[in-house]
Amino acid sequence: MRFALCLLPLLAVACGPSGTTSSTTDTTTTPTAPSATQSAPTGATTEGDSPSAAPRPSPPTEGESMDLAASSNAFATDLYAQLRTKEGNLAFSPASITLALTMTWGGAKGETASQMAKVLHLTGGQDAVFEAAGKQLSVWNDASRTAYTLRVANRLFGEKTFTFEDAFLKKTATSFSAPLEPTDFASSAKAPETARARINGWVEKETQDRIKNLIPSGVLDTSTRLVLVNAIYFLGSWVTPFPKASTRPAPFHGSKGAAKDVPTMNLTSHFKYAAVDGLRVLELPYKGDELSMTLVLPDDKKGLPAVEKQLTADKLSSWIQAASRAKVNVALPQFELSPSVYALRNPLSTLGMPDAFDERRADFTGIANPTNPSNRLLITQVLHKAFVKVDEQGTEAAAATGVIMGVRSAAPRPEPIVDFHADHPFLFFIRDVRSGMILFVGRVEDPAST
Question: Going from the N-terminus, what domains does the chain have, and what CATH number goes with each?
C-alpha cells in the first residue's frame, strides 16, 4: 500500500488516502493501517516542541529574485486558467502553492521530478532553487520591518514512526525553515482526526485565525505519512488611504448582468495607470512601497472572461509596464473573499504532473525510501484556501501647506483626471514590486459575497 503525502499550501494543502479523487467533498475509505516498524525520523523535533528557526540566509541576488518570480508567475497564470471556470469570486496564493510544491519537488526523483519542474516552470537544479527560495523567504520574513506585515511559514508534519531521508529534512529546514514535527497519524482510528486538529490549529495561528479548517474532516487517514504546510499572512496599509467618509453605496454590475448596490470607496489621487488592450490597469501601493495591489478592469462590463482567456504572465507584465503616473478618480468596492478550499489534484495533473499522484509512478524516494516499494509516498491531494479583505484602512496621514510668494505667471493648465470605476467584475494581483512576484491573485465578481 502506498502511503499518503499531503500538501497544504498556505491557504493550504491537504492529503487524503491513496486512490481518492481530488474533490474536498470526496467520500473516502480508511485503508488498513500499515505496520509502524520504522524508527522515528532523524533530525525531527520532539512532538509538541517549538523548533528554533534555522539561521536566515542572505537576500537573493536580483537574478535569483527575478527567476523565482518568473517561474511562480508563469505557474500562477497557468493555474488561474484551470480555476477560472469556477463560478463566482476567486482567490488563491500562487506563491504559497509554489513554495509547498517546490518543497515536495525537492524530494522527487526521475519523471516525477521532471513533470513537477515543468509545471512549476523551475529552472536549475534542486539545490540552486532551494537556496534562492530560502533567500527570498528571508526577505519576506524580515522581522525588522514595520511598514507592513508579511509572514511566510512552513512546517512538515511527519508520521512519528516513519523514517524520512536526512538530506531532505536538512534542506527543507535550512532553505524553508520547515522543521519536521513528529505527528501521530497511524496509531489508532482516531489518530488522523487528532492530527488534523493539530495541523489546522497551526495554520490558524500562522494566518491570524483567517484560515480555518484547512483540512476538512475525513481527508487524513491512517495511511497519511507526511503533511507539508505553507502559510502566508499579509497585512498592509494603503500609502494613500480611502477616506471612510467617501464610502457610499454604488451599483456593481455582476457577471450575470444584474446590478446591486455595494459599499464603494472613492478617492482621487496620483497612481500608476494604463488604458491598454481594452482594459484599464491601476496600481495601489501599500505603505513601504515594496508591495502593491494591481487591478485589471475590462472596459466592457461583460468583458472579464475575454481578459481571463488571454491572461499570461507575459501579458500581465506588459499591462503593468504600460502604466504611468496619472491623476485617477478611483471607485473601488470593499470586498472580503474567503472561498471554499480548492482541491488542486486534478488541475495540477491536467497541467502536466500526473505521476506525483499515481500509486505506480510517483517517485518521492528523496523524501522517504522504505525497503518495501509498496510503502513509498505519493501525493494524494493538494488543498488550498485563501482570505483577502480590502477596505479603506490605511495609516494615519498628515498634510502640510506651503505658501510660496513669487511673480505672477500664466494660470497653469488643469491636470487631466482619468476614471477607474470598478463597477463590474475585475481581477486583482498583490505583488512584490521588487521582483514582480505575485503573492495573491483573485477575481471579484460579486463584492457582497465571499
Answer: 3-236+338-388 (3.30.497.10), 244-334+415-444 (2.30.39.10)
Q: Considering the entire predicted model, what is its pTM?
A: 0.84
Q: What is the pLDDT of residues 193-239, one digit of tens each?
A: 999 999 999 988 888 888 888 888 988 888 888 888 888 888 899 99
Tens-place pLDDT, residues 57-113: 588 888 889 999 999 999 999 999 999 999 899 999 999 899 989 999 999 999 999
Q: Which grid coordinates are listed for 180?
A: 519536521
Cα 166 to Cα 170: distance, rounded to the nearest angstrom: 6
| CA gap 60, 38 in Å, rounded | 38
d(CA 231, CA 203): 6
Enter the DSSP assignment of 394: B
The SS3 assignment for 313 reads helix
What are residue 119's phi and psi, to 5 degrees? -65, -40
Number of H helices, E strands in the chain: 9, 17
442 CB-contact burial (10 Å; exposed 0-12 / middle 13-18 / buried 19+) = buried
- Kindly state the greatest CA–CA separation across the chain: 91
Cβ 405 vs Cβ 316: under 8 Å: no
